[in-house]
């Protein structure tokens, strides 16, 4: 079966907004037989599309599946660039790996890699990111901003603000950001962000922002390794969440905020980031590669560096660490 035709057919049904499309018309438009159209309709039904077949009128779309297929996302997407090209794979080791390959092949700014399942999802420092099938959002966004490499770390913070805004908009939940890359609900992690860079002597070639968001898992869906520290939007809200609504909202905020950051700098976004932060103003322990420091997390700088004041009064600039709240 020709997948492109199936996708185009889904797109036509979505665009028809509940109006019947005649089988003959579709057959003519796609240059295939009516039986072939019917086979594509059956394929879409298997994917979870609800399609009503009305005698003498044709096919009507009555419901969309909980899928992250590009057609379903793009039907509701309001962005200009982000997600206008989506590479969708049912299962893959890591969307970051695919995004890196695409970025080297000159893929366009705003391209998104999306999957239903990762078999080797990764966090910072080669840690594992558990990515259960069909329950979360595992995606990588490729950006090609014209900025100096020193401006790269803040993209993680900007992305975090975009994710919390989207979670709020779609679910009404109140997430918090834990510096630098975690999003928490009731103190448990629902999202991790991983920003990676491709750069050369000319500057940044591509930024790859990986976002892992636990959406519809229940406690048993999590690996025992993270069961005590992880949560999902469904566990916190008690409701099944529409993943494509969330993707669409996240991409919209991400486009808006990354554009704002590139054009105006980190100022306004820093204020927004601080308003969601669970870290600032609190006593924390910061574990870094070579040392661990305890103190009060006072602020972040315009460069996204955490300012930690230790008991001896010294202020330390922390570029990357794992943060634990100490009270
Ligand atoms: C992160 O790293 O939090 C970044 C995670 C980024 C994942 C996305 S998914 C799409 C894209 N493709 C990838 O392969 N990766 C990105 P870090 O701060 O190092 O946190 C990793 C730690 O989070 C692990 O050591 C676990 O303790 C915990 N963890 C793993 N899976 C989790 C999950 N599903 N939910 C909550 N916590 C998890």
From TrEMBL:
Protein name in the entry: Bifunctional ligase/repressor BirA
PROSITE patterns: BPL_LPL_CATALYTIC
Chain ranges of the BPL/LPL catalytic domain: 71-262
Sequence positions that bind biotin: 118, 122-124, 189
NCBIfam families: birA_ligase
Annotated DNA-binding residue span(s): 23-42
UniProt KW keywords: ATP-binding, Biotin, DNA-binding, Ligase, Nucleotide-binding, Repressor, Transcription, Transcription regulation
InterPro entries in the record: aa-tRNA-synth_II/BPL/LPL, Bifunct_BirA, Biotin_CoA_COase_ligase, BPL_C, BPL_LPL_catalytic, HTH_11, Transcriptional_repressor_C, WH-like_DNA-bd_sf
Gene3D superfamilies: 2.30.30.100, Bira Bifunctional Protein, Domain 2 (3.30.930.10), Winged helix-like DNA-binding domain superfamily/Winged helix DNA-binding domain (1.10.10.10)
Annotated catalysed reactions: biotin + L-lysyl-[protein] + ATP = N(6)-biotinyl-L-lysyl-[protein] + AMP + diphosphate + H(+)
Similarity comment: family membership: Belongs to the biotin--protein ligase family.
Keyword check for Repressor: yes
A Pfam family per the record: BPL_LplA_LipB
Summary of the function given for this chain in its UniProt record: Acts both as a biotin--[acetyl-CoA-carboxylase] ligase and a repressor.
Positions of transmembrane segments: none
